[in-house]
Amino acid sequence: MDFGFSAAEQAFAEEVRAFLRAHPPETFPSDGTDAGYGSGAHSRTFTRALGERGWLSLTWPREHGGQERPMGFLLVLLEELAAAGAPFGPLAGCLQVAESIIRNGSETLQREILPQIAAGLATFWQGYSEPGAGSDLLALETRARLEGDHWILDGRKIWSSHAGIATHGTVLARTDPASTRSRGLSMLMVDNRLPGLDVRPIRSLTGQVYHYEVFMDGVRVPRDFIMGRPGEGFGQLLRGLDTDRFWGRFYKAPFLRRILGLLVEHVRAERPDDAVARHRLAHAATEIAALRALFRRAAWLIERGLPATGEVSAAKVMADELGQRVLSLGMELLGPSGVLRAGSRAARLRGEIEHQYQTSWGHTLAGGTSEIQRTTIAVRVLGLPAEPRVRG
Amino acid sequence: MMDLSFSPAQQLLQQSGRTFLQQRCPLERVQEVALDPRGFAADLWKEIAALGWPGLLISPELGGSGGSTGEALALVEELGRACFPSPFIASAVVATTALGLAGGRRARDLLAALAMGERICTLAVLEEAGRLDPDALTLPIAAPGRVTGRKLFVPDAHVATDVIVLGRGATGPTALLLPMDRAGIGAHALDSMTGDKLFELELTDVAIRPDDVLGAPGGGWALLGPAFRLGALARCAEMVGAAQRVLELCVEHARVRVQGGRPIGGHQAIQHACADLYRDVESARWLTWEAEWTLATGRPDADSAVAAAKAYVAEASLRVARRGHQIMGAIGYCEEHPLHLFHKRILAAALDAGDSTRHLDAVAKSLGLP
Fold this sequence. Notes:
With 392 residues, chain A is an alpha+beta fold. Chain A has helices spanning 7-22, 44-52, 71-84, 91-104, 107-118, 233-249, 252-270, 275-303, 309-334, 352-363, 370-381, and strands at residues 124-127, 143-147, 150-161, 168-174, 185-191, 197-203, 209-222. In chain A, β6 and β7 (209-222) form a beta hairpin. Chain B has 11 helices and 9 strands. In chain B, the strands form 3 sheets. A 4-stranded mixed sheet of chain B has the order 1-3-4-7. Chain B has a 3-stranded antiparallel sheet with strand order 2-6-5, with no helix packed on it. In chain B, 55% of the residues are buried. Chains A and B meet through α7, α8, α9 and α11 of A and α7, β9, α8, α9 and α11 of B.
């Protein structure tokens, strides 16, 4: 049993740390809110800087411009970026889209989009959820019909993160009008500059914009801007689900460890004799350690190509619920200052705790709610009988 | 890239351990030993000695198999899964580790006998305060000299042939290795609900010879500290195994128990409870193995990693046991149902080798909170 990284991976970790020392995260301009998962703000400049170092295509095959590094390099990169609080918001989305394009095609997407991802020029929003299709994703109503060399896309997507500042969306649409539920769905790559696309911000309870609603009215998507073949969309979604959830949450353990470090510093400075705070921080540290261990197990399974559905869903549930507990603890430890925003007189810890506290309440909803994850574990891993579907 | 697979030796121990325990230690047997205040499965102890289990951590030159801590933990997880009632962790892990560190003729002779399963060694460390802490020791030790005093929470004193006693010497915590039949040593059973056999050890004017001192005078904690650190990790593995079994019992029950025309496991309320058990078991398991890795590779954070594991695994495993009662329903409340055996085994393990207060204190120190 070896939980360590290889010498090459450790050397790479040092390389990442050296880069972050030379280019402190706060020196990069932010152009999109930090959603609190641990990947920091959305920063085009930082994303491009990652691209310049080849860090956006670490594990891709060489034929697609990648470096064929082992998956451990990616784990190291994400852990180091999260530990430093770097603004790598779009990274997980880029990884997921690149993986899907490499696996599914089309050749056009591989030729045109992959180099843009590698350079840090392309970032993505997900067009999955709709007003009437949340946890029941298959109730989606967005449609695309083939007309000559284009898909004509009509519909409405919601809760799409950073859709207003990303370059492309991956939109799940019904391409076979006669199909129902999981059949006849396709994943289209939609350039944000296409006419007919109307991207409207949704202001969240944090006071900032992270999510968007996207209206698509006769958007003409080139015929080969499709992942794989028509009708393969749901299979692609399912195949990618475990890894998507994994890469979207893996850095939460190092992120929470960073938050814990801030809280420890606060307690040392302002309430050094508080035995209750000390006990609660130590308790949180054990939970964060357990979360990291569970993610490492999931990572190892994914690297080996073994099923990881249970581990990934459990890790996501734990990451998001533990995040809420840690940030709630932060609010308590900061006292009246906890609610003050960054920049306010008497704010503590750069106002980070109040922001991350607020974002944490969306995490158990996003990417499949905690309830959906628990049902997945119960039915798909533990073998309990599925609840009967009520057909409307 | 990390490698989270079990070695061939670990897999062999897991498989042979599980097969043996399924055949020879069914839950009825566990129940029988648990309910008998002086219960001990002497026949099974003999059989596992023949399999070499008590000598797993003892060097080959003393008749052991010189196994790794990772191999011992793989086996202990199976012991926990079977709720195997025995002094294995006290004798074959904690005492064995202390004796191995101490060296010397007495320790080596005893290790050879432990490896054969001929003797069993227990530990007398805790006192009234119940704290696993060298500063909490009050039993005065003089060697040579005579010792009078009491030790509490001594496991399996009814079957132990030897005992390591930790007390306060002139130069610091001092460990003694005494045969249980030394004149003046008496053992009185405590009445524990966990089914573990715990005793008060009463030492009345017990004669101590110079060669009874284990290791160096004043150096007792240098032996017992590392021994209890490995013991804490072994208790983690035991709790993980027991919690895994609770999960299996609950899922099986949820699948077959039909109410209102369908299995209760078809309801989200039960499904989600089972999913939480799964999360607790998996996170506890891999935190345990990560801590084992830090210890086996001598990493500087090994102490705090083991402390964090012991605190978390205890909490998570107890959560599994307690939630398990709710899933299992009224049948799990019966003495004849095995659920309470696992619950109590987890509870006993959570309290042994340092309770959560002690381990969280160590974690706090590692965070920079003195």
